[in-house]
Write a structure and sequence with these properties.
By secondary structure, this protein is of the alpha/beta class. The chain contains 11 helices and 7 strands. It has 2 domains: 158 residues, SPOUT methyltransferase, trefoil knot domain (Alpha/beta knot, 3-Layer(aba) Sandwich), CATH 3.40.1280.10; 77 residues, Helicase, Ruva Protein, domain 3, CATH 1.10.8.590.
Length: 256
């Protein structure tokens, strides 16, 4: 089954017991990669108590200071959210998202994000996702416990792996640009847009969020990523007057 490259990422979990319960939920469904971003209680005996036999997952869990570390190398990022957002990646139901995750996990690492117990994922964290997953629940009481949400998604991932169903993907000779590479692209793009005065430096957020959605929807492969970075580099070189043709013209003018 294509579960080995699936990361379950808990973003700033507040309670160690929820971490342990999430590890137990993962192990029952055959998932083994647990990543923690700034856990508030870690290490903590409550995690081992609630893991109830899944202590081995806690022992190898990777702890990160920021989300960038947890997403490094991931070719697909999926986030769980209980609420809709004005600007957001396409939303999918758990079974559909699970099929996509399992299919892509055969080719590259995939990260599945779960937010804080009280507030979930921030808009900035959602902006890093290629897909958002909504677990259908009672609209009058739709907030699931963190470990319960992990259990639901873990179950769907195992079902998708057992069924062998896949979401058809366009063939490409290049792997997708990874999450960390796309963050480098977005920083480069924002700096360039500010420099050419297309983006207002005092309020860049809305336009940059829309551009993130655009690129995350397009999902550039590694070759396309390199092309985009090259274009931005040349734009900046042109602004500096350091392109080869500009240097030659400048030199001729000096001699004249």
């Amino acid at each position: 089954m294509n579960l080995e490259q699936i990361r379950i990422v808990l973003v700033e979990p507040q309670l160690a017991g929820n971490i342990g319960s999430a590890a137990r939920a993962m192990k029952t469904m055959g998932l083994g990669q647990l990543h923690l971003v700034n856990p508030q209680q870690w290490p903590h005996p409550d995690a081992a108590t609630m893991a109830s036999g899944a202590d081995d997952l806690l022992q190898v869990a990777r702890v990160h200071d920021n989300l960038e570390g947890a997403l490094e190398g991931a070719g697909l990022v999926v986030g769980l959210s209980a609420r809709t957002r004005n600007l957001s990646a396409p939303a999918e139901a758990p079974p559909q998202a699970a099929r996509r995750v399992v299919e892509e996990a055969a080719r590259h690492p995939v990260a599945v994000l779960f937010g804080r117990e009280r507030t979930g994922l921030t808009n900035e964290e959602v902006d890093r996702c290629h897909r958002i997953v909504h677990i259908p629940a009672n609209p009058e009481f739709s907030s699931l416990n963190l470990a319960a949400a992990v259990q639901v998604m873990s179950y769907e991932l195992r079902q998708a792996a057992l069924a062998g169903e896949v979401v058809p993907q366009p063939a490409s000779e290049w792997p997708p640009a990874t999450a960390d590479q796309m963050e480098q692209l977005f920083r480069h793009l924002e700096e360039t847009l500010v420099r050419i005065e297309f983006l207002r430096q005092e309020n860049p957020r809305v336009l940059m969020r829309r551009l993130r959605l655009l690129f995350n929807r397009a999902r550039p492969d590694h070759n396309e990523y390199q092309i985009l970075r090259g274009i931005l580099a040349h734009v900046n070189m042109g602004m500096e007057g350091s392109l080869p043709g500009q240097r030659t013209q400048s030199g001729q003018g000096d001699n004249g």
